[in-house]
What we know:
The protein has helices at residues 23-76, 94-99; strands at 127-131, 140-144, 151-154. The termini are far apart. The chain has one domain (23-154). It is mostly helical and 156 residues long. Strand 1 (127-131) and strand 2 (140-144) form a beta hairpin. It is built from 2 helices and 3 strands; from the N terminus they run H-H-E-E-E. It is elongated and about 115 Å long. Strands 1-2-3 form a 3-stranded antiparallel sheet, covered by helices on one side.
Amino acid sequence: xxxxxxxxxxxxxxxxxxxxxxxxxxxxxxxxxxxxxxxxxxxxxxxxxxxxxxxxxxxxxxxxxxxxxxxxxxxxxxxxxxxxxxxxxxxxxxxxxxxxxxxxxxxxxxxxxxxxxxxxxxxxxxxxxxxxxxxxxxxxxxxxxxxxxxxxxxxx
Length: 156
């Protein structure tokens, strides 16, 4: 006696052999991803802001160090007026740093690595102000970052 042949079709599979996600599983997964995104996003944005503050402080300090070194070089050469003139808009741009010539014939840009002045983390120039001499303090300078509020100054 011959047994009948059973033909399996895709519709005759059992429920346990069907692969895929149910609607409930998909909703739970999307909900978990949304909760994780809501928790992680503020932390990520705060970390980015803190990193830009650190980069701004480092950039302003690097600019300060270049001008401070200029002061000490001038001190050894008995030069009193070593500070570069303020830009008309107080912005330390590439054009200003290349056009401003110092007492020793170098440009301001040549005080820095690669003969290029640095900008803040937002790619905007730092602001440069001369500080006049007072009865208590000598003349100096101040460098501000208009985007982060970081400020450094030097008075000998």
